[in-house]
Design brief:
175 residues, alpha+beta, Aminopeptidase, 4 helices, 25% strand, globular, GNAT_dom, repressor, transferase, toxin-antitoxin system
C-alpha cells in the first residue's frame, strides 16, 4: 500500500505527467490535459499538484486557484447587509480532482487544506473575504460542506467559506 501522508503539494511544472492523470470525470481530466497550461501562462489561474516523493512526476491530485469578486446580490441577504456596497474579493478553487487510483486515501482533503492555507497566506497581503468552490455534483458539495463551505443560495452549486472563520477566537480572560 502507498503511504499518501508524504504527499508533496506544489505548483504544476513541466516535469509533471499531466497526460497520465485520470480521475474519470471528463471535464476535470480534460482541464489538466488540455487547458491548465494555457490558464497558467495567461495568469488566469494557478494549478497545484500532489505527488509522492518517490514518484514526483505522477500527479495524484490537483486543484486550481484564482481570484474572483462576488457581487453582493450573490451572497445571502443576512451576510450582504454587513458588507460594503461593492463586489467582495474572494479566492476560487475552480477545480479539484484526485487520480482514480489514489481515491479514498484523503488526498482530496489534503488538497482542500492546502488551498485554504495558501489562501490564508495570501490574504495577509491582499484582502480576500472568502473562498469559493463550484461543486460539480452533490457528492462534491457534501465533501466541501465538511470543511464549513456553505451554499451561496439554496439552488446554487457555488459554495463559500468566509476566511474570518479561521481567525483565532478571543480567549476568555481569567481574573
Amino acid at each position: 500500500m502507498t503511504n499518501y501522508r508524504n504527499l508533496v503539494i506544489g505548483p504544476l511544472n513541466a516535469a509533471h505527467d499531466r497526460a497520465g492523470f485520470h480521475c474519470n470525470i471528463e471535464p476535470l481530466d480534460h482541464y489538466i490535459h488540455k487547458q491548465a497550461g494555457q490558464d497558467i501562462r495567461r495568469r488566469i489561474s494557478r494549478l497545484f499538484v500532489a505527488s509522492l516523493p518517490d514518484r514526483p512526476k505522477a500527479v495524484m491530485g490537483y486543484y486550481s486557484l484564482s481570484t474572483l469578486s462576488i457581487e453582493l446580490s450573490q451572497l445571502p441577504k443576512k451576510l450582504a447587509q454587513k458588507l460594503p456596497k461593492h463586489p467582495i474579493p474572494a479566492a476560487l478553487v475552480g477545480r479539484l480532482a484526485v487520480s482514480k487510483n489514489a481515491q479514498g486515501y484523503g488526498i482530496g482533503k489534503m488538497l482542500v487544506v492546502d488551498a485554504i492555507r495558501r489562501t490564508l497566506s495570501v490574504s495577509a497581503q491582499i484582502a480576500i473575504y472568502a473562498m469559493i468552490v463550484d461543486a460539480i455534483n452533490d457528492n462534491a458539495r457534501g465533501f466541501y460542506e465538511q470543511f464549513g463551505f456553505a451554499r451561496l443560495t439554496d439552488d446554487s452549486p457555488r459554495l463559500f467559506l468566509p476566511l474570518k472563520s479561521f481567525e483565532d477566537k478571543p480567549k476568555p480572560s481569567h481574573h
